[in-house]
Amino acid sequence: MRLTQSVGGDALLRRYEYEDRWVVAADIGVDDEAISVDTVGETAIVVIESHGEPVESEFELPGSADTVSVSNGVLTIEGAL
């Protein structure tokens, strides 16, 4: 397993690479209902509703996403290598 970590604003983003898959996890720190995620190719588009205003952020993924989930303010995106 290989781990890559970066911090931007209040979010902590980690990328794990295994033999057959990768996982990107971000601790967003807001209610699950406030997070909307869409993936297009190798790009994740995250929209967070904050104080009634949407805040959009994009980041590159190591490949195309197979699954996206949000639980307790943690965004997890997984894909195959």
From TrEMBL:
InterPro entries linked: DUF7127
Listed name of the protein: Hsp20/alpha crystallin family protein
Pfam family of the protein (one): DUF7127
CDD domains, A to Z: ACD_sHsps_p23-like
Organism, scientific name: Halorubrum vacuolatum
